[in-house]
């Protein structure tokens, strides 16, 4: 449970969690939230997309025990099946009270009780950064064992650049690792239509400022057949579609800006994004041997 020696009654950070039919996982995720040791207050905003497996009752049990922390939205109809993709941006981000937003879906979990404190300390001390992320272990549910994660090879902190983001798509960081500033306008409504939320979010943040990748493995990313990221959003066709939407959005945006460093950055972005689209198209044509 958190420690708050500062005595402040204001929430500094909002944890945003999406869940759907995560009855086997959600308790571990929530326990990871509550285990955080911080010198600030935080809240946990959970969006349950009309689960049918008992996830809802688990969330409500925690809400009854921690009503000042656990704040769920329980849908009666599944929003994903109705075509909504930017669920966090629609339901959780607008109600976040914190200066910072952390994200972790209901099938992943945090393993370091000082994770939030370390990330918030970094952002407090480095105002030119808009977000920070970190590595994670991977756990394969089908194998019931931990599998090798590329993040285990990261030995030093570094700044994410656009080319690395484009090359690795949304997989450039574990979605359960991000902590970002909640500075309005936080997320333009124009971006709500995009099919790949992780990629859209990290590009949007990168164009706002610097993003630090911290070498720690402070979470576990779970791989299982029902995970959204292992399904629809992982197809090359959907990734390319998302890249074209992003390209069009920022092309239109750059026309509205005066000549400036921001406009030059958008031009570099468009070139790199176009090269990335070409790379993905070629990758889709090459069949694995």
UniProtKB/TrEMBL annotation:
It comes from the Bacteria. Signal peptide: none annotated. InterPro entries: Glyco_trans_2-like, Nucleotide-diphossugar_trans. The keyword Lipid biosynthesis does not apply. The keyword Transferase applies. Residues 14-181 form the Glycosyltransferase 2-like domain. It holds the Pfam family Glycos_transf_2. One of its GO terms (molecular function) is hexosyltransferase activity. Keywords: Transferase. This is Glycosyltransferase.
């Amino acid at each position: 449970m958190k420690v708050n020696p500062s005595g402040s009654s204001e929430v500094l950070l909002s944890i945003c969690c999406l869940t759907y039919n995560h009855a086997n996982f959600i308790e571990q995720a929530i326990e990871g939230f509550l285990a955080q040791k911080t010198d600030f207050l935080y809240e946990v905003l959970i969006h349950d997309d009309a689960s049918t497996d008992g996830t809802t009752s688990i969330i409500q049990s925690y809400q009854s025990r921690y009503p000042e922390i656990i704040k769920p939205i329980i849908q009666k109809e599944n929003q994903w099946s109705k075509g909504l993709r930017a669920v966090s941006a629609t339901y959780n981000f607008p109600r976040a009270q914190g200066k910072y937003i952390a994200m972790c879906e209901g099938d992943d979990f945090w393993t370091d009780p000082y994770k939030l404190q370390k990330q918030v300390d970094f952002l407090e001390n480095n105002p030119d950064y808009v977000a920070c992320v970190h590595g994670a272990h991977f756990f394969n549910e089908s194998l019931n064992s931990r599998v090798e994660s590329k993040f285990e090879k990261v030995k030093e902190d570094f700044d994410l650049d656009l080319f690395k983001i484009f090359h690795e798509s949304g997989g450039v960081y574990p979605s359960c690792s991000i902590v970002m500033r909640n500075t309005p306008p936080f997320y333009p409504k124009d971006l709500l239509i995009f099919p790949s939320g992780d990629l859209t979010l990290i590009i949007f943040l990168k164009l706002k400022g610097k993003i630090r990748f911290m070498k720690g493995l402070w979470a576990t990313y779970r791989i299982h057949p029902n995970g959204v990221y292992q399904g629809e959003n992982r197809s090359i066709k959907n990734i390319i579609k998302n890249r074209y939407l992003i390209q069009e959005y920022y092309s239109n945006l750059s026309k509205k800006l005066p000549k400036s460093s921001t406009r030059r950055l958008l031009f570099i972005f468009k070139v790199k994004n176009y090269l990335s689209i070409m790379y993905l198209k070629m990758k889709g044509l090459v069949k694995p041997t």
